[in-house]
Amino acid sequence: MTNFGNIFFGDQHLFFESVLMGIIAFGVLFFLTTSLLHFRKIVAAIVCGLLLFITATIFWTALLLPAPRIVRTIPGADEAGFPLNRKIEFIFDRPVSRAMLSITMTPEVAGKWIYENSVVPNHLMRRLVFYPTQTLPADTEFTVTLKGIQNVTRVTLPFDAIYKFTTQESPKLARIEPANNEKGVKAETKIDVFLTAPNGALSQLNFELSPGVPFEVKADLTRTHLTVIPKQPLGQGTRYRLTITKADLARDLKTNEVIKTGPESQIYSGYFTTKEAAGIDSFAPTGNKVSSRQPVTIRFGKTMLEAEVRKNFSIFPPVEGSSLLIDGVIFVFTPKKYDFNTTYTAKLAKGVHADDGSFLPEDLIHTFTTLGSVAIEKTYPRDGALGSSIKTPVKITFDQDVEPDSAENSISFLPKLTGKFSWEGKTMIFTPDKPLNSSSKYAVKLVAGIKSTDGMNSNKDYNFSFDTDAETTILTVPLYLQQHSLSCEVASLRMALAYRQVMKSEDELLAEIGVDSTPRQGNVWGDPYSAFVGNVNGKQMSTGYGVYWGPIARVAKNYRSASEFSGWSAAQVMNEVKKGNPVIIWTFSKNGTPTFWFTPAGEKIYAVAGEHTVVVVGYVGSAEDPDQVIVNDSLEGKVYWPRATFDKKFAAFTGSGVVVY
Predict the structure, then answer these.
(1) What pLDDT, on the 0 to 100 scale, is given for residue 14?
(2) CA 397 and chain centroid, separation
(3) Which run of H or of E encompasses 562?
(4) Residues 335, 346: Cα–Cα separation, whole Å
């Protein structure tokens, strides 16, 4: 077992050691003074020694005997709006027993719990800190439960504490200018988007403007005001639709890279209409998705003279068609058929008179474009999306109506998927028969030839891809830190049994395991396949070592079904965890250098410097090929190991461990 310093690991022993040292110091002082000083000075020295001893005893008693109190937490209890990249702290008024304290946080987040602010190096800790490795999820209530809070002498009754806090909200929409359904908007207008909170790098905002106009989005210094700036004037008398969607992001706190893109949700969908020419109420069609037979419709503000309207109306390129004026205020031109993928200019020349003698003061000119080849307007997940849900349907929105069969037959997935199709307007929805694989990249392809119902068939392939979320599986195994410098195997067994509602102390379990007290003499030492080798409070590879899977499994079987194993793969371990079984594995800390010795009977013992055990309690990704492995480490707390780290450490003892059922 890895040594955590040469001093006995249990904090409570420092109190008794301090008292003992005070007595020894007093004795030495008494001896010296009786030898070197005359009687009066001897008495004075004795009194000073007693005062020093009493002062030290009072100090350590006041520090260590009362029950610890939590004097401050960061964030505070029930605090809202906690930043997503901050550490979580619990500050005690005096040292707290690490061996008895267990910690759970819901929901789980990758990171480490660390004890800090020691009175003496590595001992008597007064601060408990959680360092996340990725941003906390926004708009989320967290619950942190501390069980078994006790002072280091353990003379007070343990108590529990539960703290809740809520992380900051992801930005929401405050208002839009121009407002929804606003009319008379200038063609040179910019669109102002105001948020309830600074966006920074919390969320990915996506903007869509239809009819399509190229634009750019700029943010001010506060990150609460975004401006959508069209790169060309908006069309006159055109009704525009603005759609905004949002997806929250998770980032690696070390690299700031996006590691997950959350579900995309629509936060705004609204319309505004640009200003029309004088005397005109509306004009249609507009945009670049006009069907081949859509009529031109002009609505006037006054009753117009039909003959003049017909005479002054023109369209280019020329199109055959018929026209009429309805009730003197609605002019309709019905084309025989427009050409596909063509931009048309409709013009009503100035001077057209109304019944009251007024006239159109300027030319009315509008352009529109007919449908071209079938194209993809948008997809969900978006191309390049990270962390998509494994239960997500794939949605593809076309820019025009298409024949469903041709679209469904054009699509393929890699890896291959089976599922069912459904439709919502121009959107084809593919729902897989079973959840997608986690931590996987999916490539989607639609081949050319998708048939339009009133346009041109698609003339090129379309490809996009997305990555699925790394699904996390985790067991609620309580976390305990070890009570002795070399007792990681016993601490690991204690955690696994506690998960099965078997509550045993380290000392009770160690007594059942047994100790091989054979002193190390050169290359001869005890047998870890039979019992714990050396002193559990000793120094690794010098006066103490540890114990292997056989004795641990033997003791586990006294309370639960258990099995030892060797030669296992990562997938075998994770599949046990998937079934709900914690797995104790043998690894190493520090350098993990292989070595060996012989027992007094001559048996060769394979060993690793820094021998260590942890409890595998979960994994990120699939059980067959996890990206990360979650372990309860009796030295460090709950740790998320990268897969490469797990493979290296697990291989040190040829994939050995114990499953507790």
Answers:
(1) 46
(2) 29
(3) strand 562-565
(4) 12
